[in-house]
Amino acid sequence: MHKEECFYLGKIVRKHSFKGEVVIKLDTDEPELYRDLESVFVEHGKDLIPFFIEESLLQKGNQLRVRFESVDTEQDADAIMNSGIYLPLQFLPKLTGNKFYFHEVVGFTAVDVNYGEFGVVNGINDTTAQALFEIDNEGVEILIPMIDEFIKEIDRKGKRVVLETPPGLIDMYLS
Description:
Helices cover 10% and strands 46% of the residues. The protein has three helices and twelve strands; from the N terminus they run βββββαβαββββββα. It has helices at 74-80, 102-105, 169-174; strands at residues 6-15, 22-26, 39-44, 47-59, 63-68, 84-88, 109-112, 116-125, 132-137, 140-145, 151-155, 160-163. Strand 8 (116-125) and strand 9 (132-137) form a beta hairpin. It is elongated. It starts with 5 loop residues before the first strand and ends with a helix. The model has no long low-confidence stretch (mean pLDDT 92).
């Protein structure tokens, strides 16, 4: 399994016992969706290795205590400490309306209700205080803040992100 085919679920943050149990801090608003997993992929260098779950218990909101098959000692647990945890993309809950996963809209056409089509969503920059749509307009990068008031529609069938940006914002990049 390749990372491109998966989503980041969380990270192993600590050991729980001397018998190899670990605690995964889940990076989700709905940890209860991941309470009964059968397996996960554990990041090991650049590879993702499947690990099967014998037992799990949701605790403290977004922490999942896990006992993996063949992780029976403290040393086994040390070997996977601080590793990222991944699941295949098909395990993501389906979103509707204007809620979307960042990877889902890459490649969608960007349309402004006043300006019309103005490019293709190339990516999402979420390293800034405000996440930004990165939109390519024939080699010119246009950055649009991902503000709820700007997002009018996520048209999954038509593969379009419909926005209503302030007057002049798009022109600022294309002038």
